[in-house]
Structure formats: structure tokens, C-alpha cells
Design brief:
1 helix; Jelly Rolls; mainly beta; 11-stranded mixed beta sheet; 300 residues; globular; binds calcium ion
Length: 300
């Protein structure tokens, strides 16, 4: 039955290629295949230990409340060769502490009952300019969830009409687990620069459809970055290219995050189509973002 459904979806996708984006099912990867012989591995985490390697990552890097929930380091674990970022509702708030990266200190802001998940980054620990960056993972399956593998630089907010000083590069973002059948099993990739206010600029390659169920099977999401363009990959095959605004010429750090739809720690409604978390059935909780590895390569 699943094979029949996938076949039907594939046919619909071919039709959808000529329809407006709102009805798009997402395009299949089509383009070059990454050739790792052109690269050398320069940084990686296989998540083989029993806790997060603090020489490579930091927790909760900017805030406690994040969109419709809370980021808390207790939601992040390493087990069975994977990083696991859990996501679930907690009636009892978790312990009140978090690392404030702006002040470089531990804060004790109040946590409340609500939706809890986590985020890690390599900020102030590892940055890289150009190369190939890949994550192998299974996405958290629930309405209202937004998982992502992305890159940032301290100059992203610098408004100069260019992305060359620093660009948010979203290697993948998942927010299509919802009851809209045309969006399920898709991710998006894109860029943002010149801050997030009125000068914000960005571009996207749009939706990519994933043939292997992204919620139960591992897939790889990659980014090749050189001085001319960003090339996005799914399972080693190109999904699209961007160079709008000029690509970042500065080193960038990595992030793995999960967020809930909503604002100020209160889950509500929808966010860019992520779905209403209140519609999530019990069977999906706790949801987990399961990451087998992150690998960074540099051009030989
Ligand atoms: Ca800029
Ligand atoms: Ca692993």
C-alpha cells in the first residue's frame, strides 16, 4: 500500500511541477551528485559517546523561551550512536538554569509548564568557511514542530545590501508534518541576510520532496559552499542552488535546533504552515530529532 501511495505521489509531483508553489508537492533532487573525493573531512561528530561533547557543541545558546516552547539542555542527549533532541509537554517545569551566550554566564530565568525541546550550536567553538556540510538524521514527527540544520555568522544582522558579510544558511528546515497531504515529507532550504527587520533579504530553493520517509528513515541533508554559490543536497544529489546577495565570505558556525509554533513560550496556532501543535495526537509524543552524524569537509 505504501509503495502504491508513493507512486501516486510521484505522479502528482510531476504534475505539480507546473502548478503554482502553493500547490507544490516539492521537487525531487535533480542535479549533480556530491563527489566526496574532492573533499577532505576536517570536523565531525558521530555522536558515539554517552553525552554531548562539550568540546564541539554548546547548549541553549541564546534564550530559554523559543517560539512556542522552551529550550533546555536536559532535552538533549547522546545515545546509541545518535544525538537525540526530544520534544514534549512537561507539566512540571525543568530546572531553572541556562547558559546565556551574550553575557557568558549561567542564568536562572524561570521556566514554566509547557513544551520543551533543545538546541545546540558550535558558536565560539567551531566555524568554517566553504566546503561541504552534511547531517544524517530522522526528523521529529508532530504537528507544530520545526527542526533544522543551519549555519550562522555574527554579521548576519549587518545591513549592507549584501550577504557576503554573513548569511543564515538553512541547509534544511522541516515544518511540513501536518494534515496537508501535499506538504508532508518535504523540507525547505534557503538563505537570509541583512538582519530580520525591514532590510531583511532572502531566497529559497523551495520545497524538496523526500522519497524515504524522513520521519522514520535516515536521510542526509547537505550544503556545498564555495565563493560563488550554495548548492543544496538531499542524499548526495543536488536539490538547488542559490547565490542571491552574494554568498558569505566569512566563516559560519553550525546549529541543530527544534522549535514549536507559537511565541513567548506559548504554543499556539500555526507558523509558516508547521501545523497546530494542539492537533497532534498522543502517539507522536515525545517526538525526537535523531541525528546520526554531522560532518564538515573542506575542498582539497
Ligand atoms: Ca549584510
Ligand atoms: Ca552516529
Amino acid at each position: 500500500m505504501k509503495i502504491i501511495l508513493k507512486s501516486i505521489i510521484t505522479v502528482l509531483m510531476l504534475i505539480s511541477a507546473v502548478l503554482p508553489d502553493a500547490f507544490s508537492l516539492g521537487k525531487l533532487p535533480q542535479g549533480k551528485t556530491i563527489n566526496l573525493d574532492e573533499f577532505e573531512l576536517v570536523w565531525s561528530d558521530e555522536f558515539d559517546g554517552d553525552k554531548l561533547d562539550k568540546s564541539k557543541w554548546t547548549y541553549n545558546w541564546w534564550e530559554t523561551e523559543r517560539k512556542g516552547g522552551y529550550w533546555h539542555e536536559d532535552m538533549v542527549s547522546v545515545k546509541d550512536g545518535n544525538l537525540v533532541i526530544g520534544a514534549e509537554y512537561k507539566d512540571e517545569p525543568l530546572e531553572n538554569y541556562h547558559y546565556d551566550k551574550w553575557k557568558d554566564q549561567i542564568n536562572f530565568d524561570e521556566y514554566k509548564a509547557g513544551w520543551y525541546t533543545g538546541a545546540i550550536s558550535t558558536i565560539n567553538i567551531y566555524e568554517q568557511k566553504y566546503g561541504y556540510f552534511e547531517v544524517r538524521c530522522k526528523l521529529p514527527a508532530a504537528y507544530g514542530l520545526w527542526s533544522a540544520f543551519w549555519m550562522m555568522n555574527g554579521e548576519v544582522e549587518n545591513v549592507d545590501g549584501s550577504g557576503q558579510d554573513g548569511t543564515e544558511v538553512d541547509i534544511f528546515e522541516s515544518f511540513y508534518y501536518k494534515d496537508h497531504w501535499w506538504g508532508n515529507d518535504c523540507v525547505v532550504s534557503g538563505i537570509h541576510y541583512d538582519g530580520y527587520g525591514e532590510d531583511h533579504k532572502g531566497d529559497s530553493i523551495g520545497k524538496t520532496f523526500i522519497e524515504n520517509d524522513p520521519y522514520t528513515e535516515y536521510n542526509t541533508y547537505g550544503l556545498e559552499w564555495n565563493e560563488n554559490e550554495y548548492i543544496f543536497y538531499l542524499n548526495g544529489v543536488e536539490t538547488g542552488r542559490l547565490s542571491t546577495g552574494g554568498v558569505s565570505q566569512n566563516p559560519e558556525y553550525l546549529l541543530l535546533t527544534v522549535e514549536f509554533s507559537g511565541e513567548n513560550g506559548v504554543a499556539s496556532g500555526d507558523r509558516h504552515g508547521a501545523g497546530d501543535i494542539n492537533k497532534t495526537s498522543d502517539k507522536n509524543w515525545p517526538a525526537e530529532f535523531v541525528v546520526d552524524y554531522v560532518r564538515c569537509y573542506q575542498y582539497k
